[in-house]
Amino acid sequence: MKYDAIVLGGGPTGATAAFEMARRDLKVLLLEKSEFPRFRIGESFLPETYLQLKDMGLEQAFLELPHVEKLGGSFTLGHGQQEPADFWFQNGLVNRNSKSFNVERAPFDAMLLDAARDAGVEVLHSEKVIGINRLEDDDVEIVSTSGVKKARFLIDATGGATVVARHLGTKVKFPELSNVGYFAHFTGVQRNDGDKGGFARIVMCEDAWFWLIPIDDQRTSIGVVADHTFVKRVNVPASRFLDWAIKRCPVMAELCANAVACEPNELPAGANHVEADFSYQCKPYAGSGYFLCGDAATFIDPVFSTGV
Question: Which of 303 and 203 is assigned the larger pLDDT?
Answer without folding.
Answer: 203
